[in-house]
């Protein structure tokens, strides 16, 4: 493989104009295809065959209004309970949100809490009235029983006109029985109401201390499909409520936006890499070449991914992965060859031979490392999850392109750059060192190459490398022990998806997460959606009772 790469490097050096023209055509063609054929990144994730996906599909089919994404908005009154003006300001802001076409609902938390509290009060009042009615029925029965005894005694004494009195008594008894049946029916209704209240006992939209309120904004589509401008509009409208002295926090699902491919972090990373390369290599040209090669590889890889998004449903995270990996490996792979070539030039090797040999030696490492990464990323297709497969293949394709750029375009560019790869100061030091080595070799009666090889052999018998080779068991034991100690925390590792609790402590998402937990209790930040299917043929009352039975069983888990 080294000889093939050696010949490839020599060919790229000799035919550098053709190589440059070919890659220019590839970049322009990929860019044109991305502009002409790109689709919309869906950011919609599905895991076919799983229970959670079946629940989401069922919700979308049978309850489409509940299938969209949602995000929480938390309001907090730092000085105490909400004032009427603050409640009005919050209600007005939420009313404006409901006018946005992409939002299905944004309920007023104070109105909802009032309805919940009013329902509980009505239930308590109904119980009081029911107990009073039952007492009246009991007292009425006692009075009728007393009258019945009097009439029975009078009838036994032969008193006249008893039939009419007995008929009136019977009518009164029937009225009491009807009242008792009505009370029993109302009692059953109240029992169902109590069960409903118990099932929703943990649901509050205003905290018990009255200092925090929360509302859920229900979007028409998936939360990942909400456009950035809609998110910004939501933030702008909600933030107006903070002018009344209320702290407003939006949850992670609203504040998080993954629509931008190139962000501040990527720009800072490239800048830091450029600074390090300049310090290491000494010239802007030498430092800029690995960056340029990485950018070209990323441009082709990401451009191709965008072009395919028109025919393949693709999430923007696929582009992010391709971008990050392409920048990382693109710089490294090109730097391997550039640094080897630079070192060989300083030792006096001819330009063409240096380019070919750098490609054959360092290029071998580049090819092996690149294939390893490509295979690992392509293995993401093994679980059979569509979004994970596309993500892995997009990253693998970009890494493969980074390898091709390093093995073909980098040698060609080294031919264009020539001796400008090395700074003037480095050249002066190298000439002085080479002249001294030649003079020393002449005095020793040997060649400079042989003298350098002897020096390398002598150097290999000292230092860290020599110690490792002489004491392999000790080094291996210490290394394994150090790795084991380092890996000990992994025994307590808990894996989960990121949420508001993993956001920066000064962010709205983190404050919304912590305020919800502190004001409304544990578990409110991690709801679980369960979907049940009622048996056929049930009446409304039976269906309602079955729902409460399920709620009672679920509350005990």
UniProtKB/TrEMBL annotation:
Q: Which InterPro entries match?
A: MMPL_dom (IPR004869), Mycobact_MmpL (IPR050545), SSD (IPR000731)
Q: How does it sit in the membrane?
A: Multi-pass membrane protein
Q: What is its main location?
A: membrane
Transmembrane segment boundaries: 261-284, 291-312, 318-338, 359-381, 387-414
Q: Give the UniProt subcellular location, in the record's own words.
A: Cell membrane
Which key words tag this protein in UniProt? Cell membrane, Coiled coil, Membrane, Transmembrane, Transmembrane helix
Segments forming a coiled coil: 130-189
Q: Which domain of life is it from?
A: Bacteria
Q: Cite the SSD domain residue spans from the record.
A: 284-416
Task: Specify the protein name.
Answer: Multidrug RND transporter
Species name for this entry? Pseudarthrobacter phenanthrenivorans (Arthrobacter phenanthrenivorans)
